[in-house]
Amino acid sequence: MGRKLLLEHINVPGINTFDVYRQNGGYRALEKALKTMSSDDIVEEVKKSGLRGRGGAGFPTGMKWSFLAKPEGKARYLVCNADESEPGTFKDRYLMTYIPHLLVEGMIVSSFALGANTSYIYVRGEMMPQIRILEKAIAEAKAAGFLGKNILGSGFDHEVYVQPGGGAYICGEETALIESLEGKRGNPRIKPPFPAISGLYNCPTVVNNVETIAAVVPIVNDSGDEYAKLGIGRSTGTKLISASGNLNKPGVYEIELGVSVEEFIYSDEYCGGIANGKRLKAVVAGGSSVPILPANLILKTANGENRLMTYESLAEGGFATGTMLGSGGFVAFDEDQCIVRNTWNFSRFYHHESCGQCSPCREGTGWMEKVLHRLEYGHGKLSDIDLLVDVSKKIEGNTICPLGDAAAWPVASAIRHFRDEFEWHVTNPKEAMERNFGLAHYADPLPKPEPELSQN
Amino acid sequence: MKVIIDGITIDVEPGTSILNAARMIGGEIVPPAMCYYSKLEGSGGKCRTCLVKVSKGSEKDPRPMPKLVASCRTTVMDGMEVQNITSPEVKEARKGVVEMLLINHPLDCPVCDQAGECHLQDLSYEHGSEATRYEFERRTFDRIDIGDKIQLHMTRCILCYRCVYVADQLTEKREHGILGRGDASEISTYIEKAIDNDFSGNVIDVCPVGALTDKTFRFKQRVWFSKPVDAHRDCPTCTGKVALWYKGEDVIRVTGRKDVYGEVEDFICNTCRFEKKNTSDWVIEGPRQISNRSVISSNHYEQLAPPPVVRKNLALQAANKEEFERATKH
To answer: What pTM, to 2 d.p., does this model score?
Structure first.
């Protein structure tokens, strides 16, 4: 059994209420932090823990916190990004629904570390129940004296507010989230300046994912060094993985980083194998925006090593043969799933969610969606496949925010690894409407990729 | 601060953007800009045509920037090295952006009033490919009248947001913005309310394409047949410095004075723009200098001088030194 930090007490009945959470050691971190630690101590512990942003980018949280500008006479803000809307990711919703006090406690401790007297939880508009749950949790914490003026006699004042968003994927991008929180149109800002210098209301702001903030609680409880003992290398601690797709036991799992992908899919402790005794075809390992990998490459890297659930191991091989841990949206596809249809579906999502601010993303996402729709419904041409690759390259890296990259990667990787399936859709349009391509005969293991030509 | 753009070194003030530094050098190395407008605060960064490669971050930190950056919104650092037309990567990316801008553009230049002074036309001519790879229906919108003087033809819009910044910054109320999201976004006034402000007509001048047009000028004359003249009047609201566009003896249009980058020198008021269309309203200063590379000048003020043969031949240039200098002054 892997060690659980966030979901340790998830099965205790009534853990979503203040009393039960408190009886199970809740708000211990808050007391410890406010009574015995200085704010710099907490930042130091988080740095030592090696905690990396759980929202997808994997940026070291301690470093992000230490970048926060601290000008005199200006408020600082902590914003919790609960705009979880990546297809395949549902861990934050789970955490907020079943153990909301963990997030509230994390918010207070993190705000204390950052010196923020006001913090916001920006929740996606569709998550109405979670908004009510969080508001109830905040009210309970306030009644117990963990929020408000002079918390536990430490002289630290703090308020947490829950702000529902409008349900836009783009508002999960930190600067778009800040714009939306300010009451404006949720368009990403052009960086620099980064939020750590000028964020919410032009004040220094830290935006962290729900899981990141929750992970601060065990770090403060057990110390950063203790947390860093879990995991492998620079991937420390535990991570919530939202497993979905054709698995026997889909759901949210807390894993110690470093579990092998094979164990995660097939062991009974986690997903319990592919449903209905079918074979694994492909995996999207970190939410819809990361590159999709065929079964052989997700289980073993191109060098033949076991692939582990860590930031580094999943990225092994770069974009040619690797993927990313992302936000931990683990979607498994069995042999009966159609990659073309799935790619079209992802594309449709990004087309719908593009904010329309910068041209490559606004126009390119729609273009890719239309071409993929044509391929899926049997009107495609062989040249469409290269066209898609080219359009995705024109979008990637040329946009203001990472949504362009997120839209381009799934398409480019699906074509890279499943080109024969795309071609089959063009050459056998009738058959493609009736049945799926099934497993392809991939060379296994794949030959080593040629080193990319160095760019001048 | 020293910055090197395409191998040309220039000294600029701290805080200058790469684009403005390139404009100080001038010539072919200036990245095209469809959304940046130096007189509108916060504009730029959206169209991505001005992408450049920063091959050396600064003297202190010589690492190159990982991605191409929007030159209009990136400030220079001391010792920065920038590649624009010398980088194949930039050229490729720019071609991609131009293609993206054009896939949903109606390409109705033959009936568009902006033709001849349209930035998208210039941009696609210089950086685009001759054929499209887009085989789907282009997006269309109904035409909307914004007040009785301005027409919005969203179909042609490239969503540069310039007019939104004009409405935000020149007028008192925010009455003009973006509705919708992604490729369904559209410029609009809230519930088609008329813009009612002395400076609202400037949205026409800042529009790089034919999406916002002057209804008092629509379909009157192709812009390259009209003759631009600098003029001014004593205006209580604005500076009154404008360009008049003549068709024979009649003033058919009044606009701000645009520089080589299509930016007006001064924003003008609606009275000057729409009401004063008699020569007697104005003090004429003289013919407007238009770059001899523009189609507008092709018929009148400047010829394509000196002839290309002289441009290429140094001996001929030396022999006609005085004439050559006069002709290439602008």
So the answer is: 0.90
